[in-house]
Specification:
Length: about 290
């Protein structure tokens, strides 16, 4: 596009990496630009749509909330002491909150859910093998007879459902659900996407405008350079390119593009805008 030699990032793009925001050169895997202090990546889920295993895991977590709630109701009906009520009901709010957080696919909530499943399984096992640890005896209570009859039968059913749900949720979560929380990094490096290297000027220009609106002026300028290469006679692309160079502080590049643009400016409005840009550019240091 230009015959003037420059020794800057724009002449080394094929062999260097630069920040997509300010066009400062950076090293590979640099997470924050040392010049503009902007983070150079954002995270996206590797799989935008969760798998069926993820929803099964979510349903099992919600089922645990219901089963623990039933267990607490049985404790109230059979006159269990406060210690038993506490230990039986401990995981109801925990699983309720984790169900919501796992639904939003927070990776730390996924790990917390696995830990909670292990701890809840240990609690259920200890209560089964050594009920005195959690004060689960109902001997001597007015409803002891009820507990040893119908209440005991229901409690057995709830216990095995709860134990099975805990084991199943843990196995599914550990073996099949982890990929649903995997993320990949998309880097804000100064580069032209492959699909833009052969696209027409208007398509590239619209993409450049969107990048500029996000503050990614380095990437926007790379797009306008491509747009001008595709359609060298479009003054609109030059106006945006010059403004982009100016905002990034590339004074010599902006002035060089201004000289080229003035040769093709065919309207008084275009020449007036170029004159305004020249005044702004000449105020830059250097």
């Amino acid at each position: 596009m230009t015959t003037t030699p420059f020794n800057d990032i724009w002449s080394r793009l094929d062999n260097s990496l630069a920040c997509g925001f300010c066009a400062a050169e950076v090293e590979i895997e640099t997470e924050k630009c040392p010049h503009c202090r902007r983070r150079l990546y954002f995270s996206v889920f590797r799989y935008p749509r969760p798998s069926s295993n993820f929803y099964i895991f979510l349903i099992l977590l919600f089922a645990l909330v219901q089963l623990v709630m039933i267990q607490v109701i049985l404790d109230l009906l059979t006159g269990q002491d406060s210690a038993t009520l506490f230990w039986h009901g401990l995981f109801m709010p925990i699983f309720a909150v984790l169900t919501v957080l796992v639904f939003w696919r927070f990776i730390w909530a996924y790990y917390a859910a696995l830990i909670a499943l292990v701890l809840a399984g240990l609690q259920v096992g200890i209560q089964r093998l050594a009920p005195e640890v959690f004060g689960s005896s109902v001997l001597g209570t007015p409803l002891a007879a009820l507990y040893t009859g119908f209440g005991l039968a229901v409690s057995q059913v709830v216990f095995w459902l709860l134990a099975g749900c805990l084991v199943l949720a843990f196995l599914i979560g550990l073996i099949w659900v982890a990929p649903d929380f995997a993320r990949d990094r998309i880097w804000y490096w100064l580069e032209l996407p492959a699909e833009m290297r052969t696209a027409g000027g208007p398509t590239v220009h619209l993409a450049a405008v969107r990048y500029a609106e996000k503050g990614l002026w380095g990437i926007a300028v790379a797009h306008w350079r491509r747009a001008i290469a595709a359609e060298p006679g479009r003054i609109l692309y030059f106006l945006h390119l010059i403004d982009g160079y100016r905002r990034l502080g590339f004074k010599a590049r902006a002035l060089d593009a201004l000289d080229m643009a003035e040769d093709i400016a065919g309207t008084a409005e275009a020449r007036a805008k170029l004159a305004e840009l020249r005044l702004l550019t000449e105020r830059l240091p250097g």
